[in-house]
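Data availability (excerpt). The following record was deposited with the supplementary files.
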Amino acid sequence: MATKRQVSCINKRGSHYSAHERISHIGGINHDNTRWKLTEDQAIKDIENKQYEFYVLVNGRSSDVIVASYQGCKYLRTIADGYSPDNLLSLPECP
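Predicted structure:
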């Protein structure tokens, strides 16, 4: 059974404010208040291997992070919830 982890920050390749830049890392805070951070590739592997399930909490709404693919390139995104932009992309920069 996969462990659930809340994603509370991201890093992007290039400008954090550009919607066209790919996510390079996701991160969050463990139950013991230590920080965790994974590369996008590792997070994709963890989801596909069912080691972790990731989610974001934005404005009190929870949305699962999934692996998507565009022209053979895998990337992370949240399940469409009718809000734009993608909840994952709206998170602050990880330290």
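Summary of structural features: The two ends are 29 Å apart (CA to CA).
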